[in-house]
User: What shape does this take?
Amino acid sequence: MAIEVKEQDLTFHLYTKRTSYIFTAVKNRYLAHVYWGRRIQIPHMENALLLRWSCFDVMEPVEHPFSLDYICREYPSSAGDYRIPSVEVEFEDGSRECNLIFNGYCVMEGKPEREGMPSLYTEPEDNCETLELSLVDEIKGIEVLLYYTVYEDYDVISRSVTIRNSGEENVRITHVASASVDFENSDFEMLTLPGAWGRERHIERYPLRRGRQMAGSSRGASSHQMNPFLALLDPAATEETGTVFSMNLVYSGNFTTGVEVDQVGKSRMFMGLGNEDFSWLLEAGERFDAPECVMVHSSDGLGEMSRIYHRIYRERLLRGAFKEGNRPILVNNWEATYFDFNEEKIVSLARAASELGLELLVLDDGWFGKRNSDTCSLGDWYANLEKLPDGIGGLAKKVREQGIQFGLWVEPEMVSPDSDLYRNHPDWCIHVQGRPRSECRNQLTLDLSRTDVCDFIIETLKEILSSAPISYIKWDMNRHMSNLGSAKLSAKRQREMPHRYILGLYRVLEEITTAFPDVLFESCSGGGGRFDPGMLYYMPQTWTSDDTDPVERLYIQYGTSLVYPVSAMGAHVSAVPNHQSGRVTPLKMRGDVAMSGNLGYELDLTKFTEEEKEVVKEQIAVYKNLRNLILKGDLYRLKSPFEGNDAAWMIVAEKEFFAAYFQIQAKVNPGISRIKFRGLKEDAFYEDMETGEIYGGDELMQIGLVVDLFGDYQSRTWHFCEKRLCESNV
Ligand code: DGJ
Assistant: This one.
C-alpha cells in the first residue's frame, strides 16, 4: 500500500520504495507538512510537528491557539501566513481572503486523467495509488483538490491541483502552485538550470538566504533562460551522496518556482504556473486544472535523483512507437545549406548519408512559400517549386530511393508578416489591438489560445503529413511572446492568453501525434528553448541546443541530464570551425559527444574527405551497436565540466556499459588522471571490447583506468561487456 491514512489524527503517509512523505490535518482543519525524506515508520506527531507561535504572530482562533506562520504547511493559502501562498484569488467584491480548510479525502487506485494536459501516466503493473484531498473556503465555496500520485517503485510522487468554483459568484485565480513543501530549516543550497540561446541548462548552485529567491519564465515558453526545475540540496551533497529534494513541472509555458526563507529560518519550496501574465476567471460551477509537478527525493545525491527522473520519464512520460529509444541516425541540412538548397543538393546529401550508414534525412527550414531567408512565408505551408520542382512528395520519394527515410521541419506556431496567411488573417497573431506588433526573427506568434487557429494548424499539418512518406517531423518554435493579447478573448480574460496558448498547443500536438503514430516527432525551440516534460509527453526527443560545438555541448548535455534522459536529447556532429563558436575540434570528439544522445549529423556530408568518411562510418557502426544501451541505460555522471577541465559520464545496462571521457584543454606534464566507473557489479567481470582485457567490476570502480589524452579537445570512449568466467580463468 503506497498510501496510509491514520484516521484518528488524520495523518497521511505516502510511501515510495525509499521515501516517505507525511502530512496531517491539524485540529481536523489545517493541513500541516510533517516530513519528506528517507522512508520511515509513522512518527510520533507531537515530536514531528510543533504547534507554536512567536511574538506578533497572527493566531488561529481555535482552542490552544497557534500561528499558521510558525508551522510547516501543506498547500497554504494566505490568511495569517506571510510566506508565499500556494493559491491566490480575487472575488467579485474585491476580497481576496481564501481560507482553505480540510474537507475530506479519498484514496483511489491508479491516477485520474488530466484531460488536455500532459502528465505521467500509469500502467496496471505500477500499482499506483492517488490521494485526493479536498480543501474548502466555506464562505465563498471555493474547493481546492490536491492530488498526490505515488509511483512506489519509481520513488516518485507527482502532484497536481484542481480548483472548483462551487460558489455562486465568479472568482479570478491570480496564482496557483502545483506543489509547495515547507522545511523546518533552510540549511540547503538551491540548484537551478538557467541559460540562454546556445547555452541552455547550465547548472547554478548557491546557498539560500533570508527572503524570497525566485526563478521562472514569463516568455510564453518554458524557455532557454530557466528550466522548470528546482532542487534543494544538503550543502555537502555530491553526485553520489547527500540529500536532494526536487521539483519539475510538466508544463511548457510560463512558470514560477522558488524558495522563501522566513524569519525563523524555515524554508518553503514551490513550483507552479507563472504569475505576472497569468490569471483565470473561474465562473460559478467551473474547474481549473493546474499542471502536474513531479517530485523526487534522493538520499544518494544528484546522480540518483537524475536516474529516478530518467527512468520514470523514459517509461511513464514518453509515449508512442519511439518511446523505447529506437531512433534513426539522421542528417539535417540546416548547417549544411541553410536556406540555399535545391532538390539536387538534398538528394546528393541523402545519397552521401546512405553510403555512410545514416538512416534519415531531415529537410530543415526554407522548403515552403518563397522562403529564401527568415524574412517571409511562415504560415504558407506549400512547397517552393523553384527549389523543389516535384514538391515534398517528389523529394521524399527521391530521398527514400537512396535507401533512407525522409523527415521535414515545420514551425506551425508562427506567422511571417510577409505571408498569405498573415495577409488573410491579420488578427490571428498575438497582439494588442491598436498597438504595434513587435517582431522577433521577422515573425509573429500565432494565437493558439484561439480554437480556429489551432484547427487551421491541425488541418495544415495533417495535409502535409498525408501528402508524402514523411517519417519524422522537427517541430520548431523560434520566438517568445510579446504584446500579450488575443483578439478573441474578452477584456476580463486577456491574461489567460499565455496559458490558453499552451492548452491549445497541447490539443494540436495530441491530435497530430495520435493521427500519425508512426512519425517520430522532435521538438525544438531555437534549440533547447522548450526542453520540458510537457513537450516530451508528445514528442520523445528535443533538439538540445542550436550550439553544436562539442565543448559547449559538454556543459549543455551535462546540465540537461540532471533531469532529462539521454534518449530525450538530440545531438549532432557539425562542421568546423563551428558555426556558433568558431572553435575547431577533432571529428572524433564531435562524434563522441553527439553519441551520448540521439546521434545525428548537421553538415555537408558530400564534402567529407576519404579519411573523414572512414571515421564517420566507424562512428555510425559503433553507435548502431550501442544505441540500445545508450538510449535505455542508467546514466552516471563521473566528472563535471562545470568543475574543471574534464568531463566524463557512463551509461550502464544490465550486462554492458558505455563510457566517455573528454579533455577540454591540453595539460602539459599532468598528474595521473583516471576514470573510476560506477554502477557496476562489484563481483562481476567486464571485458573491454576494444582490447579484450578483462577487469573486475570492483577494480573498475575502485582503481579505475588511466586516461592519457594529449592535446586540446580530446576524447575517449569505452564499451565493456559483462563476462562469465569460470574460477580457473580468474
Ligand atoms: C532554429 C532551430 O533550432 C535550428 O535547428 C533550425 O531549424 C532553424 N531554427 C531554422 O530556422
Summary: DSSP finds 13 helices and 38 strands in the chain. Residues 334, 364-365, 409, 476, 478, 524, 526-527, 543, 546 surround DGJ (CB under 6 Å). Residues 6 and 146 are 18 Å apart (CA to CA). The chain has a mean pLDDT of 96.
